[in-house]
Design a protein that fits this description.
about 475 residues; 21 helices; five-stranded mixed sheet; three-stranded antiparallel sheet; alpha+beta; 3 domains; AIPR protein
């Protein structure tokens, strides 16, 4: 039995509409209490960024509290989209979003979160229950909302009995995008195909990250699934969607993924141009460039195919898949190198704790943990010192033909290699430090650092070191 899609009725005041091509935009105001059904039924799957509490939501709630009459003129409100809709009496429209990845709340996630928290706080105050004060992501809020939904209903019943109480009568601007003709299949498909670009453009004023758009297109789906299977704890710490919580930024993983991805056979982008691998030092110094090039790679028709008609794409290239299978192992290897590097550097005759950058990084730091697995360590290290050594792991990888397909794989088990040989590699690599004045920025941005580390691994593999 197909899953029934949620329907929401929007009651507009002061509405108007515009139609251009296959898209109709209905604009107007709705009273805050009518947002309750929107919060009940929708999430932020279609919004490139998730929402979380902070200065933005605080300012929105302060504006509602201080001057609700002017609030609709201070905010863009909420942008909604639905490929299915029905016009009802009394200026009401019922929407039934079909594809949650591209329909629903396209923009205004922080407004929806702030107003939802405002309503929930009022309802809980009326009941004599305090609203938890901790920072809340959208998911945390929705869990709290659902847990206390009966209290919201009790509060609404009280407001109906007190017509002079206008606590939730302030207006919120609403824009609703719908297909010009919902009965015309071609019109609906054209409407859906435009939604992601509209969503991205609307979010540009808040500097929409490339990662947010890549996530919407499904470019992280395979990496996320593989990481969940390989190391669920690390997977939970990655912020796959902007503002969705997570101590590790997805671009950190994508940068590491370019180590095996650099070994794949060339592919061409949508314009027929070869997608070049990123230079090694960009893995440390230009993670935004790594992410942009990753998006270009994943948009290639030689790598992913469009699924359905909602702009999401699915990986089908076995070589890229194999590179991802290697990539998800790199965070744990990174952390092992991070943990062991200070000791091995000292074994090489250095005095790691006396390096100025190391001293500054470790001063007054109570918590000292490795970046990905959050394991506690004795000494924190600047990333510029570690990145070349992690890149050097590429010496342990190869592009081999298996069952007629090129795949990226390990020549030997990497953790076993590191446990047996990392000290020798570090001794060889440490020679770059004096050349770069022991400056992690210079080391991390110097192409020679990566060549030196890679050579250390290769010579160890060859039995020279």
């Amino acid at each position: 039995m197909p899953i029934k899609k949620p329907s929401i009725i929007i009651k507009f005041d002061c509405s108007g509409e515009q139609t251009v091509g296959e898209i109709t935009k209905i604009v107007g105001l709705t009273r805050a209490r009518f947002l309750i059904s929107i919060i009940d039924a929708l999430d932020l799957e279609a919004n490139p960024r998730s929402a979380k509490t902070g200065p933005v939501t605080d300012a929105i709630q302060e504006s509602i509290e201080n001057d609700p009459r002017v609030f609709p003129f201070k905010t863009k409100g909420v942008l909604l989209a639905s490929s299915r809709y029905d016009r009802l009496e009394r200026n009401r429209i019922r929407i039934t979003p079909e594809s949650p990845e591209i329909e629903g709340i396209l923009d205004g996630g922080h407004n929806t979160l702030a107003i939802g928290l405002y309503i929930l706080n009022r309802a809980m105050q009326h009941k004599g229950i305090p609203l938890p004060r901790n920072t809340k992501t959208w998911d945390v809020f929705k869990e709290l909302w659902q847990k206390n939904r009966d209290i919201v209903d009790e509060y609404l019943d009280m407001l109906r009995r007190e017509p002079d109480n206008d606590a939730l009568n302030f207006f919120v601007p609403i824009e609703l995008l719908v297909p010009r003709d919902a009965e015309d299949g071609g019109c609906v498909e054209s409407f859906k195909s435009d939604l992601l670009e509209i969503c991205a453009a609307r979010n540009n004023n808040v500097q929409l990250q490339v990662s947010a758009k890549a996530n919407q297109r499904g470019y992280f789906d395979t990496l996320k699934s593989l990481m969940e299977s390989y190391d669920a704890d690390v997977n939970r710490r990655i912020e796959w969607k902007t503002n969705d919580g997570g101590e590790v930024k997805v671009q950190d993983l994508v940068a590491l993924a370019w180590i095996p991805l650099s070994l794949i056979n060339p592919v061409r982008d949508c314009d027929g141009r070869t997608v070049e691998p990123v230079s090694p030092q960009k893995i440390y110094s230009a993670k935004g460039s790594c992410l942009s090039q990753f998006e270009r790679l994943m948009s290639s028709p030689e790598v992913t195919l469009e699924v359905d008609s909602d702009y999401r794409r699915e990986l089908f290239n076995p070589e890229v898949l194999s590179a991802f299978e290697v990539a998800v192992q790199l965070p744990k290897l990174y952390d092992y190198i991070y943990e062991m590097f200070p000791k091995f550097y000292n074994f090489a005759g250095g005095s790691y704790g006396r390096i100025t950058a190391v001293k500054r990084l470790n001063e007054n730091r109570r918590e000292k943990k490795v970046p990905f697995t959050a394991k506690t360590v004795e000494t924190l290290s600047p990333d510029g010192f570690i990145a070349p050594l992690v890149y050097g792991l590429q010496a342990l990888m190869e592009n081999a033909v298996v069952d007629g397909h090129s795949v990226i794989r390990w020549k030997q088990e990497p953790m076993d290699f590191l446990r047996a040989n990392l000290e020798k590699v570090v001794v060889y690599y440490a020679g770059i430090f004096s050349m770069c004045d022991y400056d992690p920025q210079k080391i991390g941005k110097n192409a020679q650092s990566y060549t030196q580390a890679l050579s250390g691994y290769k010579m160890t593999l060859a039995g020279i070191l």
